[in-house]
Amino acid sequence: MEATIDGRKGVSVNWEGSAISRPRLVVKPERITELIEIVKSQTKYPSPVRAVGFQHSITRCAVADGGTLVDMRHFNRILEFGQGHVRVQAGIRIYDLVKALDSRGLQLCACPEFGDISAGSVACTSNRYISSRGILGQLSSTVVAMKLVTPQGEKLDITAKQPDLLNVMRSSFGLMGIVYEVTFAVRDKIGFVVERQQMAIDDLSLALAEIDTAGTGIELTLYPFSNKAQLEIRHSVNLDKKTRQWALILRAWGWNCFVPFLAQVLKRVLPIARPRAELLDVLLFQAQKLFAKVADDHIGEMSAVCLPRCRLPDWGRCTYTTWAFPAEDFSLLIDKYVDFCHEFQREQKYRCDLPTKSVFVPKDSASLLSYAGEGDMYTLDVFSSGDKGWEDFLIELNEFCSANNGVPLLNQTKLLSQRQAAKGLGIKLRTFKRLRRNVDRNNRLSSTFFQPLVG
User: Fold this and answer.
1) Whether 259 and 376 share a structural domain
2) From residue 45, how far is each of 14, 49, 61, 64, 447 by CA, in Å?
3) Which of the listed residues 154, 189, 224 is the one where a domain comes to its end?
4) I want to staple 386 with a disulfide (CB 3.0 to 4.6 A). Which of 110, 244, 319, 339 is the partner?
5) Is residue 391 part of a domain?
């Protein structure tokens, strides 16, 4: 087992480099016995003990200041391809798992676009992907079994025969135990066709009302200052025709790599924020229109949308934050959000320089802290190059979202306050707090990030 003292220089623990952890010890276990030793030995491995994979979350949920950071990436094997399931170690990269399933004519029941996420991470955190009714929108909800080391250093095996315990663990954020093995439900591969429409934001309400969400995935791109939007409707189809993966790969690569890189380049050559953002609006919306003309009606596969992280320099990345809102009121929320963006620009002279994204997530109560537990939801994913004024904007955005019945994602909503978390998650969060206190009385796995939010 590798161990490194790294407290003095700090360790960046998320992909965008915004969350810096300063643990006393960084360990990379290779065997379950080593993982048990780490959790049990509080003198050798100081608290808090936090496990990380590929550091995808954008909040400080994985920090272990003064404690022990457990890098799980040596737990990276596929253990079993079963009937309707796949069993893996928690440190395997989802991109590698998706490709292995694809070669066998299989796929995950929900598929992320970011491939650099570990299986253990998605098994016990909030996540969001383009989905539809009948297909769960959170990958954690497709977990049918998991194995973990409890805060007392004991092994625990949870299966579908323990639905209540599995429900809690699917949104436990590593606070109930360190997951080392995960079993996902899988299905035969299906394809999908994407229909894209460009319109004014004012016309979105009618367009959304006309969509039958059964079997349909929905993604929106909003340009609040240009009154423009793109609506993407994804229809599931059988794979009885030749697929054209290039279009989906190009789209995913463009948004995840080219767009943030372009935003950062323009920030350097055009430092005045407002004209830079206006230029980006024009360029990106026109690029979406052009792409819609050449790529619509092509059958694609889910594996094509799951890509590894682009290896951009630190300055070539973007950042974002996510809230979720009830689907039945989302059209009204969009209008309020546009007004909020304009008002903030007038008063604070700041606007986000990248478009806002949104995806439809069907009702999903498979995890205790699910943001879609009570009904269908739309996410609001606000992107930015992270320029000056972004954090001030986030503080006001969180107040706006909380006041408008928004539900936060603890690992994807930045600068979230205890009050906002309690309002958005309500009795579910209080239930989780009570359960967590019973499981981890000594706060072995909790951190300075989580203690104000969940105790």
Assistant:
1) yes
2) 22, 8, 19, 11, 14
3) 189
4) 319
5) yes
Question: pLDDT averaged over the chain?
Answer: 87
CA dist., res. 142 & res. 389, Å (int):
38
* Residue 273 counted as domain residue: yes
> Is the residue at 444 inside a domain?
no
- Extract the tokens encoding 435: 């359960």
Side chain identity at 428, as an amino acid letter? K
Domain count, the chain: 3
Alpha carbons 435 and 322: distance in angstroms, whole number: 26
How far apart, in whole angstroms, are the C-alpha atoms of residue 215 and residue 109?
A: 13
Same domain assignment for residues 205 and 335: yes
pTM summary value: 0.90
Is the confidence at residue 436, as pLDDT, over 90? yes
- Closest C-alpha to 397, from 453, 343, 452: 343
Residue 399, Cβ neighbours under 10 Å: how many? 14
Over 60: is that where the pLDDT of 134 sits? no
The C-alpha R_g of the chain, in whole angstroms, comes to 21
At residue 7, the pLDDT reads 43
DSSP state of 141: G
> What DSSP assignment string belongs to 146-196?
EEEE-TTS-EEEE-TT-HHHHHHHTT-TTSS-EEEEEEEEEEE--EEEEEE
Question: Using one digit for the tens of pLDDT, what is the confidence trace for 198-252?
Answer: 999 999 999 998 887 776 789 999 999 999 999 988 887 777 665 566 666 777 7
Q: Are residues 141 and 204 in the same domain?
A: no
Can you give the pLDDT at residue 315? 55
| Domain span holding position 83 | 78-189
Q: Give pLDDT tens digits for 35-44.
A: 999 999 999 9
Other Cβ atoms closer than 10 A to 254: 15
Read off the CATH number of the domain in which 273 is found: 3.40.462
Q: Is residue 384 domain-shared with residue 277, that is, in the same domain?
A: yes
Q: What is the reported pLDDT for 2? A: 54
- 273 pLDDT band, cuts 50/70/90, is confident
